[in-house]
């Protein structure tokens, strides 16, 4: 956030986010639950993909997902080789 809007507004945004979390925890009586790094990583990946698709469309291209040809041939633990 700091990179987008500058240090003062970034600090204010972070402080507001913490205040809202604290208020919600106190008013509802719930404990804080960390979303985890995987959640944020997945969220970042989805957002990056959406931005890439949007930019490709603006430039006249179409993104097509690459399919792994060997994905169907990965043996599971239950099937003997």
Describe it for me?
By secondary structure, the protein is an all-alpha fold. 59% of the residues lie in helices and 0% in strands. It is flat and about 50 Å long.
| Assembly state of the chains shown | single chain
Radius of gyration: 21 Å
Q: What are the low-pLDDT stretches, counting only 5+ consecutive residues below 50?
A: none
Q: Give the mean pLDDT.
A: 84
* Morphology call: flat
What is the strand and helix layout of this fold?
Blueprint: H1 2-5, H2 7-28, H3 37-58
Keywords:
single chain, 81 residues, mainly alpha, 2 domains
Q: What's this, in brief?
A:
This protein has 81 residues and is mainly alpha-helical. The chain has helices spanning 2-5, 7-28, 37-58.
């Amino acid at each position: 956030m700091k990179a987008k809007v500058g240090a003062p507004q970034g600090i204010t945004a972070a402080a507001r986010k913490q205040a809202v979390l604290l208020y919600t925890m106190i008013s509802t009586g719930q404990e804080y639950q960390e979303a985890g790094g995987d959640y944020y990583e997945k969220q970042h990946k989805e957002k990056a993909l959406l931005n890439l698709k949007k930019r490709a469309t603006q430039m006249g291209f179409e993104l097509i997902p690459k399919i792994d040809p060997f994905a169907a041939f990965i043996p599971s633990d239950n099937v003997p080789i």
